[in-house]
């Protein structure tokens, strides 16, 4: 996948855990453009997250309207900042001292924060070797045959049991690229798949002629 998609770039600056949590809550069940716009609106309205503590829920809902599920997402965001601000811990520096298990347990104890959101904080903000599992990562890992699990939560536990050091960011990011562009939920395009030879999916389609494959590999990049 690295040969095909390249090594994914990382942000020059690590995002603060609370920023990433809020952004990931907003990204649930919507596309990147909508969640980005909702996050920017929120940042513009409340330049300091402490201001969210006293903000009326309806006002937060209106501000993040673009992200959808506003009631649920505004509630989760408000609950998070209210709890963190109580102990003056909005910077979440304390989480850096926790090991992965402790940090995941702590983060998922908040309403509206599941294992996927929590593991994104570990990978993208703390640079831990943890591979979050969304629907694309779950589908591709199971089709390839690396795991055999029914739910993303179980796939997450399985894949992270013995993940080789230093691969989580590249694995996660490239599996999402694979799942969005090639190994789609229906009609996976196995003829252009860079890991077709390794894949154990029983419904895998066989390669077309090498010339067609080369052309389509180029298009898929
Ligand atoms: S060969 Fe097909 S099923 Fe297997 S990972 Fe590639 S696109 Fe998905």
UniProtKB/TrEMBL annotation:
One Pfam assignment: HhH-GPD
- Give the source species: Melioribacter roseus (strain DSM 23840 / JCM 17771 / VKM B-2668 / P3M-2)
All copies of the HhH-GPD domain together span 26-181
From the Swiss-Prot or TrEMBL record, give the protein name.
HhH-GPD family protein
* Gene Ontology terms for molecular function: catalytic activity
Q: What is the lineage of its organism?
A: Bacteria, Pseudomonadati, Ignavibacteriota, Ignavibacteria, Ignavibacteriales
Q: Name one GO biological process term.
A: base-excision repair
What InterPro entries does UniProt report for this protein, alphabetically? DNA_glycosylase, HhH-GPD_domain, HhH_base_excis_C
